[in-house]
Amino acid sequence: MAGGPCCGPLLTALLAAWLMAAAATEGQEQAALPAEQSRVQPMTASNWTLVMEGEWMLKFYAPWCPSCQQTDSEWETFAKNGETLQISVGKIDVIQEPGLSGRFFVTTLPAFFHAKDGIFRRYRGPGIFEDLQNYILEKKWQSVEPLTGWKSPASLTMSGMAGLFSISGKIWHLHNYFTVTLGIPAWCSYVFFVIATLVFGLFMGLILVIISECFCVPLPRNLSEHSEQDQRPKETHGTEQLQEAEEEKDDSNEEENKDSLVDDEEEKEDFGDEDEAEEEEEEDSPVGGVDEERSNASDQGLLKGDNVPKEEAEPEEPGDVLEKPHSDDTGVAEDSLRQRKSQHANKGS
């Protein structure tokens, strides 16, 4: 009974030591176990050509992007099932790899792409595991138009775009180094980049001038003089031909004018002949009319002579009978001739 109280604290101390040792060994075993490796393969400018073979799904993200962080777990789950789906899964950090973001022309985050034997398509789904799985199993990517022509990441234009994006990324990192690490004001950094751009432009212009001087060989003076002399006769010959053509045109125009004048004169002569013929006919017509009137008058006089007494039937003087109708007919004929002459004169003018 005397040893009971002493054994109690000893047993509790031993039990606590055993528990501490067990916890330590368990922690060591957990630390010794390797962490679960991610099945998502990081893509860089050096290994991005792997996507040109086989089937791939790519994700462009940025560490500061909230929507990119929301799809990280879904993307990891999709990558774990990549073996059953027979597809490789990769991701690209646009901050670390600006050249690849320019090659794929990424303007929004997160951005997803499907690649099948070097043919790229843009995936515009929500980025959930179920939708990604159905996109591969049901081959929904076949209904999406592929990136062809200059939009393809393997094209020459997109390679140039990748170079521009990589240069812009380096400039951005340099600006952060000036402003954050060294503590230089932002306006000083901007002035530096402006001066550097001007100097670089002048340097590139000088290089282009040197290349043009080296490859574009100038012609000797003798050849240049001969070429100028050859060009002068050609120019003079061309001017002479133009002058001759103009002279021919003028001659042809003059001949046409002459012909038109001759035609006008002939028409006028024809009209004159017609007028003369008409005048002759009109001159003949009054005489015939007078004769006919005389014959009619004589007939009427004979008829009256039979019925009327001799005193009343005595004719008047022949001069009076003939002069009146003759004067009236001649006046009418003259008026008609004048009217016709005035009409022909108006036509000729």
Automatic annotation (TrEMBL):
Highest taxon of the lineage: Eukaryota
GO cellular component: endoplasmic reticulum membrane
Record keywords: Membrane, Transmembrane
Pfam families: Thioredoxin (PF00085)
CDD domains, A to Z: PDI_a_TMX
InterPro entries in UniProt: Thioredoxin-like_sf (IPR036249), Thioredoxin_CS (IPR017937), Thioredoxin_domain (IPR013766), TMX_domain-containing (IPR052454)
Transmembrane helix among keywords: no
MF-aspect GO terms: disulfide oxidoreductase activity
Protein name per its UniProtKB record: Thioredoxin-related transmembrane protein 4
Organism: Castor canadensis (American beaver)
